[in-house]
What we know:
five-stranded antiparallel sheet; alpha/beta; single chain; six-stranded mixed sheet; Nuclear Transport Factor 2, Chain: A
Amino acid sequence: MFKKIYLILTGILITVVSYAQPGPVIIPQYVKLPVDSVQTKKLISSLNGFLQQSINPTKDNTFSLKDYLPETAALVAEIRGMENAKNPDRKDFYKCYITNIMPLDSTTYIIQLAYMAVDGATPITRISIKLLARRAGDGYLFYSPLKRNTLNWKSKQEGNFTFYYRTSLDTAKAANYAKKAQEFDAKLHAPVYGNQMYFCDDLQQSLEVLGIDYEADYNGLTGADFSAFGNNIELDVMGTGDGDTYAYDIHDLWHDRLHHTIPVTTINKPVDEACAYLYGGSWGISWNDIFKRFKAAMPAHTDWLAAFNENKNFGENQRYHLYVAYVIDALLAQKIEKEKGFAGVMALLSCGKKEDSNDNFFLALHKTIGINRANFNTEVEKLIEGEEVK
């Protein structure tokens, strides 16, 4: 999912970043290892295998316990590449240390790991995490402790959504959120999948339930969401509480449902954003109010093709941006849906990534509803004048 004012780390997205295979863990002398040396050897060997395969999707990691796939994928996304400093010349700067191995029972352990280095005379910790390890066959499988850490939390089921919370839940907003997801899925003919949302009180709690004791990248931040997809379940660990303004953001919900339906590489981002404006507003502002601001910012009888290409930000600042082209695209999408049904909107949405020339967009627009560069100004003017403002 794409939360607007917080850092998002989404386990379901494909990245082009390549990672070197991590080296073996380091076991300091002070770490008390299990008494059974044979099992200890298997445990350490499996752990090294898990970490070495962490550069790949977690579903393909042969040392991952698949019953806990989405939360483990979210945790692995945090440790991926942690051996490298941000300076590209300092690869393999951090080393992975085992700081504790604690038996829970005869087959399960909590393992604490820390990626640490010394810069000059200053010791630095990049990340410190906890993993659960369970004996399986001749080795061990690893997984996030999220379920264990939230064992006593309450839950609420709404459609395909399960909302988990420690203190309170806005049940009306949760029900509306699940209902909107169902509406979007019906439009999109989306696949059916489960959704688990964990509402933590703050960022620190969201890190801890996932299995992260500390991560330097989040110093000074007040909120972050962690997402991953696995076992036909989308997991969202929300680090701001369900009372936050954007906890149930319908704008981002639209993006999320669309991106589960068609390949992201085929999506035209301005049209995607336009539909999110239309169906979910933006920054807590309704579509009606976005359009009011648009009307106030843009003079009558504008050269709409030029304005579309310029795509000026008419939001209150860069952070809370609102773009002219997205509003125009929203009006076009609304017209297409009324006249051609949502299949017509999908044709425009999936016309391909935005090009500087916008040729792919105008080709799809003309094919869908007969609007092209020659009649764009006239048709857009009609849509602007005809849009009802409440």
